[in-house]
Amino acid sequence: MDNTHIEKQLKAAADLNRIKLLACMKNGEVCVCDFVDVLGISQPAVSQHLRKLKEAGIITERKVGTWKHYRLVEDQTPLMQGILEQIQPLNGCNCVSNCCYEGEE
């Protein structure tokens, strides 16, 4: 792993809101709508935090209808694996508004 990648991952992990996002994803995939409720910040602000984590290769996304779901990348670097081991999972990060199921039969 080169120094630029290390710097990007450390910068991405060095923010309390992004740590909370990672804590949510420790229990599995989470819909973007739930992050707004957990962090209590605007959806555009949540999107910026998620973008930084994705660009650092820490998380990945998949689209479900009009919503995006985020999860931790399975093969983390040793650096990120060590950091993630120190973050306690945050419960209550699951789709409570049923936004993920709109339009599904």
UniProtKB/TrEMBL annotation:
It comes from the Bacteria. Residues 1-91 form the HTH arsR-type domain. PROSITE patterns: HTH_ARSR_2 (PS50987). It holds the Pfam family HTH_5. Keywords: DNA-binding, Transcription, Transcription regulation. NCBIfam families: HTH_metalloreg (NF033788). This is Metalloregulator ArsR/SmtB family transcription factor.
